[in-house]
Amino acid sequence: MRYPRDLAGYGPNPPHANWPGGANIAIQFVLNYEEGGENNILHGDEASEAFLADVVGAAPWPGARHWNIESMYEYGARVGFWRLHKLFTQNNLPVTVYGVATALMRAPQQVQAMLDADWEIASHGYKWVEHKDMERQDEAAQIAEAVRLHTVATGTRPLGWYTGRCSVNTVDLVSEQGGFAYVSDTYDDDLPYWRVHNATPQLIIPYTLANNDMRFVTASGFANGEEFFLALKDSFDCLYREGEEGSPKMMSIGLHCRLVGQPGRFEGLKRFVDYIKEFDKIWVARRIDIARHWADHHPYQPPRIAPSQMDAESFMATFGGVFEHSPFIAQRAWEAELGPANDSPLGIHFALRNQFRMATDDERLGVLNAHPDLAGKLAAAKRLTADSTSEQASAGLNALTDEERETFTELNIRYVEKFGFPFIIAVRDNTKASILEAFKTRIANDRATEFATACAQVERIARLRIEALFAG
């Protein structure tokens, strides 16, 4: 089983974005242009539009036009767009447009205004329709047609993509189409990242439905412009502070002509634009600018080891010896669920360690007994594994005095007689003196306590061996 979802991401140590000018935050305004591309029987669709309009809870009307919703979309093209265009151009703020191809083909004035303002026009798909049930080949054909019409309408092919009402195949299909500097059909991070599909890396610039005016027409959303402003301000304040603390992020703001283009809602957006003017260390950018910056400063680096992508032979060759002479642990891990979260030293150790913990007591006892005595007969005969040899040498156990060797021998014998397995300790965490001290202390434990202690040390040894593998 391979689990495709990446629930790890950058983790607690995201890369430093290095935004231009040392900015603490990159702000990105997205204007979704969908008017004229929505569901409509005039467009060859089976029913009217029912999504993201001021008829909350609307349902599609099969075979009929919904005059009210059509009119609300038309407000976005006729009025809302120009109100937003004036705000951004007067404040010299760059914008990325998510343009539905068929909508752009019906918007000569708006497209020219976008081009004159040097706004980026990214693709928002062929039509503003639902894709979740679309056949893979049909969606691929629509992606190709969207690129064609977009190029006709704007003069250049799109470099960015966001479907929005996407399917589980969308990001893969856009990656396969090729030619895109970024794809934005995810909501999973505050920074761009690379996603590999068919052995090819694709830059992902996540989008947002939180800092998004769509919440004016959804349950528990914004009731007025002030609530929109406060949500944007709080998001900005949090991300700006994190940037000051050394972890700059990106803030996406999603807008729709027919929604925030309404006067009362618009005032909340304007208030936010005025608010961010008070800050110096911000970078307001188009998404294509962010994509180019990320590609320059954080180019794709293929992982040295990606356990979840290995075949069985490679996996066993790499991890089969992590638990001393116990390859069944690695075999069970490979046969179980692995995913992107396991493609790190901590992640693959977690998978292997869990298999060790789920083994029976007899199996775990077998793992303990697979470990050699410290400075014992196998070491003297040079019959230790390469890992064990290196580990024991790291604490000087390969160069004992006769007295020290006698002490270890005596302790080994007493320990095994009492517990039925050899003394195990993560040698790389210790010195010869601390190992002897632990030996003398732990030999006084009861068996249950010592069994648990030895198992924990086995896990620690495995972690250290894995970290060495990843370090190369």
TrEMBL record:
Gene3D superfamilies recorded for this chain?
Glycoside hydrolase/deacetylase (3.20.20.370), Oxo-4-hydroxy-4-carboxy-5-ureidoimidazoline decarboxylase (1.10.3330.10)
Instruction: Indicate the segments forming the NodB homology domain, all copies.
Output: 67-285
Signal peptide, first to last residue:
none
- Sorted alphabetically, which PROSITE patterns does this protein's record hold? NODB
> Where on the tree of life does the source sit, at the highest rank?
Bacteria
Q: Identify the keywords attached in UniProt to this record, alphabetized.
A: Purine metabolism
A UniProt-annotated Pfam family: Polysacc_deac_1
- Family matches, as PANTHER family: POLYSACCHARIDE DEACETYLASE-RELATED (PTHR43123:SF1)
Family assignment from sequence similarity: Belongs to the polysaccharide deacetylase family.
Q: What does this protein do?
A: Is involved in generating a small heat-stable compound (Nod), an acylated oligomer of N-acetylglucosamine, that stimulates mitosis in various plant protoplasts.
Name by which UniProt lists this protein: Chitooligosaccharide deacetylase
**Source organism (scientific name):** Pelagibacterium nitratireducens
